[in-house]
Amino acid sequence: MAAEFVGIDHIQLAGPEGCEEAAREFFARLLGWPEIPKPANLIGRGGVWFRCGVHQVHIGVQKDFTPAKKAHPAFQVRELGELRERLKTGGVEVIDDDARADEGAQRFYVNDPFGNRLEFLEWIASGSKERFTERVDDYVKYRPSYPEDALDYLFGEVGLRPGSLVADIGAGTGIFSKLLLARGSRVIAVEPNEAMRSAADEMLGSEPNYRSVDGSAEATGLADSSVDFIVCAQSFHWFDQVATKVEFKRILRPGGKVVLIWNSRVPSGTPFLEGYEQLLHKYGEDYGRINHKNITLEQLRPFYSNGGPVKKVFFNRQMLDFDQLKGRAMSSSYVPALGHPNHDPFVAALRELFERNKRDGKVEMDYETEVYVGEV
Where among 98, 123, 148 does a domain terminate? Predict the structure, then answer.
């Protein structure tokens, strides 16, 4: 069997002899990282260990210590602005860097108490939790649900049961959580976007088997070995797969499975479907780059164990009048929003496409619902 890299176990930073209390002051008290006990056989070497998200950071004692001024770890953060102000208040010099701003990364550097360079960054644009904030209403109203035969498959062959505890990761506005609840599952909806999570809470908050968590795929905030299944409906393509695999393995109970689901819009087969695809390529912002169709079965195999996931495909369809079609389009993060220079030309072209192809006042938007299931 070939070797498989599953991620980073820990990050090692160095400090001078007697560095422990200064490390605790900075990493534990200022950054808020919990200290974790060192193995008994390593305590005599000095140093101190901390937990950062799902990873460990080890501060080791180095004789003739020299700080690392160039080589450095980069820690992904949510609410980077709050961390910046906290560090400044604590007397730490913060060095901002916008070299990757066009990719959507906000970041800055600091030196730890020993002079080691540390980077902290947050992804704000592409792939970020905030892409859908202004599209929540359209997402709730116009995104397609999932076919009953796909749910039958999950609650039959895959093994979900009434009472199963399911973590819906990247739960969005709760579309798939609602279907799981209707089948009797207990659901923890993990969603980092506050607006989308609030929409899910408004719809599902009265359900006794539902609760939501402000968390991400890479840092869910859930306990070790706490859930029976994980589902990711229309969300996995946004995740950092390496960090996500580590986190999923941590929170799943033994034998638990990960289910990835996409309503994959069919781009061809009718003049309407082909015309709609052409509009997205012409007017869409970064459509080709972030489209989940860029993820293939072969690319998913390394995420899963035992040779990769089982894939099943089910048919799904929406019948849309023009307002519904427009709302469905605007629920996609790559479609130009109101105020964007391409918004009005896109809507005009969409109206023309609709008028050419409507039957009884509606058009058919077809999907292949792709379901991938396996252990990680």
Answer: 123
Task: State percent of the chain over pLDDT 90.
Answer: 73
Domain that holds residue 119: 10-123
Is residue 347 situated within a structural domain? yes
Span 217-243, average pLDDT = 92
Distances (CA, A) of 273 to 112, 243, 267, 359: 55, 36, 5, 14
User: Mean pLDDT across the stretch 74-100?
Assistant: 90
What is the CATH number for 142? 3.40.50.150
Same domain, 223 and 154: yes
Our count of domains for the chain comes to 2
Q: List all residues 6 or more positions away from 86 whose beta carbon is below 8 Å from its beta carbon.
A: 30
Is residue 242 over pLDDT 90? no
Query: Where does residue 307 fall: left (phi above 0), alpha (psi -120 to 50 degrees), or beta otherwise?
Result: left
Q: Please check whether residue 139 is in contact with residue 196, taking contact to mean a CB–CB distance below 8 angstroms.
A: yes
Mean pLDDT of 336-341: 87
The Cα–Cα gap between 361 and 109 comes to 56
Q: Which residues pair with 312 in a beta bridge?
A: 371
Q: What is the bridge-based pairing of β-strands 74-76 and 117-123?
A: parallel
Q: Are 240 and 159 in a shared domain?
A: yes
**Whole-model pTM?**
0.66
Phi, psi (rounded to 5 degrees) for 16:
-80, 170
Pairing of strands 35-36, 48-52: antiparallel
Looking at the fold, whether 337 and 220 belong to one and the same domain comes out as yes
Look up residue 160 and give its two tokens.
Answer: 């979900």
Nearest to 13 by CA among 48, 63, 53: 48
Tell me the percentage of the chain whose pLDDT exceeds 70: 93
Q: 262 pLDDT band (50/70/90 cuts)?
A: very high
